[in-house]
Amino acid sequence: MSARVLYDLTGLVHWYAYFRHPGGVQRVIEKVASSDVIRQSSAVEFVVRILGSDRFYRIEPELIADLASRRSSAISRLRRILAQGLRLASLQEMVSEGRYFHLPYLAAGLTRMEGLIEALTEGAAGRSSPVLDIVAPPGAQDTLFNPGDLWWQKKYVATVAGLKKRTGVRIVQMIHDLYLIERPEWTPAGAVRIFAEQLHGIAPSVDCWLTSSQFVRQQVQRYLADRSVPEKPITVLPMGWDSFDALRDAGHDRLSERPVLERHGLTDKPFILSVGTIEPRKNVPALLDAADGLRARFGDAMPRLVIVGGYGWKAAEVRARLASGSRNGTLVWLENLSDSDLGILYRNALFTVMPSHGEGWGLAVQESLALGVPCIASDAGATREAGLDLATYFDPSSAEGLTRAMAAWISDGEALTAARDRIAQAQATRTFPSWNDAGSVLLRSALS
Questions:
Q1: pTM, two decimal places
Q2: What is the C-alpha to C-alpha distance for residues 448 and 444, in angstroms, rounded to an integer?
Q3: DSSP letter at 204?
Q4: 300 Rama sector, left if φ>0, alpha if ψ -120 to 50, beta otherwise
Q5: Helix axes 24-33, 435-447, angle to 10 degrees
């Protein structure tokens, strides 16, 4: 039998059980999975673990591709499949491992009413239930790839480690960052504990690590050394610059973007954009403070501040400030934004700001630059790897540095135009990684 790469989408299926748009981790998982290199490889099978067992069932590649083109329908089908998959778990397995968020899907699966999930979430009512295809057990020639979300099932890691011990299957593990361990004060204690336990459990079984940046590669090296875990190969997976290429095509009609801007109330004046989950790590208060000061300085000439990001955790005070600013018109806070709308907001922003205290990569920096929009980014974590020499950087501990950088582009149109020209010149003369490049690196790591 030919070697297989089992691309584990267990976490992605669980994410879309409750959310309609991806976070940063989910965006990377989707982009790599939907790359042509991965979808067209005969070696790759997309799989989801059956709760409480070492069995997996198959997810069709077309369903992952549909997340980009027919997202509502794809998510509805994923939710239905989750309910069907939970029906395959025994009662004992479910009791031992099930979490509270499994309950509605378990109930739908056991009563064979999972079609209602699809009907109620914009799917097609009455569609016959697909038969879940159980994947043949892996062997020593195969590789199981976890794309970085280990935490959705209590015994996931123990099961995978046991599977490796019995079958010899290779384990390739992606790590997006280790801030939950290195800076636990940014995250709820329960999430920190679960992540730490799962990572500690899987580490001895990993044959190859993939990371989102050289910065995270160094984090993983320190983690393994501190715990005396033998270091295995650690490869950096390139992050693609082509997430919003459709908006850069010559045939794209810029007039079609105006209704999106009108829907979000962004046609009356220029705006500054910031994208990221509302949580302590993202350093949103520093951006709000800078904007307040600049508004006092520039008056009506101050562009509107637009914040795009769902509420995460441990940021109730920031959420209150965002809600207040939205009510009085000093800013716009948008949650649950589609990728198509997000790309259009990037394209039309005066510039973007990413003030985070630390990033394992910095997708918001990269996405802004890829669409030709200048970005002011903190220099913490891996953001310099994401923004290269094309972003303008500041120390996130310096409120003055952020304010000064924003003021320069608000007050000096020529300087902002020069920043745009520099990005355009780089795009015309340099080659940047694509998600196909990421897929190729994954396949080489998994099949070597």
A1: 0.93
A2: 6
A3: G
A4: alpha
A5: 80
- Is the Cβ–Cβ distance between 310 and 336 less than 8 Å? yes
Q: Which two tokens stand for residue 47?
A: 């799989």
Percent of the chain exceeding pLDDT 90 equals 78
Q: How far apart are the first and last CA of the chain?
A: 16
* pLDDT at site 395: 96
Asked if the model's pLDDT at residue 115 lies above 80, the reply is no
Length of the chain: 448
Look at strands 44-49 and 56-59 and give their pairing: antiparallel
Sign for the CA dihedral angle at 91, 58, 21, 370 comes to positive
Contact 419, 392 (CB under 8 A): yes
Q: pLDDT per residue over 241-264, tens digit each? A: 999 887 776 567 778 899 999 999
Tell me the sheet residues that pair with 418. none
Q: Position 349: which residue type?
A: A
18-22, 176-180, 214-218, 287-291: least confident range? 18-22
Q: Give the DSSP letter string of 333-396.
A: EE-S--HHHHHHHHHH-SEEEE--S--SS-HHHHHHHHTT--EEEE-STTHHHHHTTTSEEE-T
> In this structure, are residues 265 and 259 in contact, taking their beta carbons and an 8 Å threshold?
no
On whether the CB atoms of residues 36 and 439 are closer than 8 A, the answer is: yes
Element (H, E) at 202: helix 189-202
Residues 71, 73, 74, 75, Cα dihedral to 10°: 80
Q: Is the dihedral of CA 272, 275, 279, 282 positive or negative?
A: negative
Which helix (H) or strand (E) segment holds residue 413: the answer is: helix 413-429
Give the number of other Cβ atoms within 10 Å of residue 311's Cβ. 15
User: Which DSSP category does 186 fall into?
Assistant: G
CB burial of residue 173 (10 Å; 0-12, 13-18, 19+):
buried
**Which candidate, 374, 372, 379, 378, places its Cα nearest to that of 409?**
374
Asked whether the beta carbons of 375 and 368 are under 8 A apart, the reply is: yes
